[in-house]
Amino acid sequence: MNKFISKIRSNLVKFILWNYRILYIPLRVYIIRRKSVIKVAFIIHSLGAWKSELLYKEMLSHPRFDPELLILAVYEEDDRENIKRYLKDKEYRFIDITNNNNIKETGKYDLIFYQKPYHFSIPDRYNFKKNPHSLFCYVNYGFHGVDDIWSRDTLLLNNCWQIYYENIAAWRGSRNVMRNRCRNGVVTGLPIMDELLISKEKLSDPWDPQTKRKKRIIWAPHHSISDKEYVDYSTFLEYCDFMVRIAYKYREEVQWAFKPHPILRNKLESVWGKEKTDLYWKKWEEMDNTQVETGKYLELFKYSDAMIHDCGSFTIEYLYTGNPVMYVIKNENITNNFNEFQQSAFDLHIKGANSQDIENFVRSIIYGEDLNKHKRQEFFNINLIPPNGRTASENIITAILGDHL
Which residues contact 88 (CB under 8 A, 6 or more apart)? Predict the structure, then answer.
């Protein structure tokens, strides 16, 4: 009997979602596109992952849109107060919805943008099933470099109205793993591309002053330190002490920014404990030639000279700087889930398999060596510029309004 009831419930959910996609979404699109002003909500629970800021700003200046920012800090390092401080400094309009039962209590939005598509990234009461009055659009928090089913074939993404992609190769990768064959995908470019293309001269320098100009290197370790992770990138535990030593060893030649993944610290506390974790962070905060960066990182990238990392998203993002970059390899299987786009970007990295490789890379930056500069420029020209001669944000607005891309 329980199996029978479960099957009926499952079929009912499928029937409801089918009607939602086939009947409700087209009807709502018809209505929304005929409104004089479209009300849009952007959910923010991490500054580092909020990659639609330029889209928000574009909508602010557009007569057809009324965008709002809704703060929902969940489990990542950026808490609500840090997010509020950033938004206040920018003079953006925002609402803290943490104590609401659902998004509808704040206002009736035509469109809602989420930061991440995973079921664990947002509490149930705020997910799209509890807010059926709105249509959902999705801007990925990074480039689409991995086409794993768990990250692409989610309930939210299959039932979004529109998902935006940086290029045709990225869209093709999702089409191969999504149940709906990515019929809701639109190749517009991503707002992060607009952000990464901003001229360095328009941004402030976030690096701490030094007594003399030193080479600036970012170390950006991933959070996947557990053996039970769904991805297995992080080399932090293997090299954390070595990186402190090398930062001190080359203190006269190199300035360092420790840029951990936003959730690495929380995970590390469960392995090391809070006291040891705090002491480690303190080392990077107090050395004369080091600093810790946990929020937005565009300016940090632009004013750097190189980066060492083991992250998926930075594999593509850092190539916008034109600077040399090293990927520290944990094992030979790390590229198994990379798609064609990500693999091409990965191939442009110097590879680090041990401490000596890392130190050799640091020395090469000090001496001004750069082996892959021409290849990185060629990759940039082909893959990292939004299509149609417009910004990605302009393309997304065009797609929402139903104009021709």
Answer: none
3 state SS of 306: strand
For residue 12, count other CB atoms closer than 10 A to its CB. Answer: 10
The residue with tokens 């030193």 is 214
> What is the pLDDT at residue 90?
94
Q: What is the pLDDT of residue 290?
A: 98
Note the pLDDT tens digit of each residue in 246-302: 999 999 999 999 999 988 999 999 999 999 999 999 999 999 999 999 888 999 999
Per DSSP, the three-state class of 70 is strand
Residues 6+ apart with CB under 8 A from 125: 101, 102
Q: How many residues does the chain have?
A: 405
Give the whole-angstrom CA distance, residue 82 versus residue 261. 16
Q: How many CB atoms lie within 10 A of CB 19?
A: 11
Alpha-helical regions (H) of 90-211:
149-152, 155-159, 168-175, 191-196
- The DSSP-derived string for 356-391 is HHHHHHHHHHHTT--SSHHHHHHHHHHHSS-STTS-
Name the residue among 17, 214, 280, 224 with its Cα closest to residue 132. 17
How far is C-alpha 29 from the chain's CA centre? 27
Q: For residue 131, give every residue at least 6 positions away whose Cβ sits within 8 Å of its Cβ, in sequence order, or none.
A: 102, 103, 104, 112
Q: What is the DSSP letter of 403?
A: -
Residues of the chain below pLDDT 70: 1-5, 7, 73-78, 119-121, 227-230, 405
3-state secondary structure of 41: strand
In single-letter form, the type of residue at position 374 comes to H
In angstroms, how far is CA 292 from the centroid of its own chain?
A: 19
In the chain, % helix, strand, coil (3-state, to 5) comes to 45, 15, 40
Side chain identity, residue 8: I
Tokens standing for residue 85? 């401080």
209: region left, alpha or beta (phi > 0 left; psi from -120 to 50 alpha): beta
What whole-number distance in Å separates Cα of residue 51 and Cα of residue 117? 14
Which residue, 310, 259, 258, 318, is CA-closest to 289? 258
Give all strands (DSSP E) within 231-271, no chain letters.
254-258
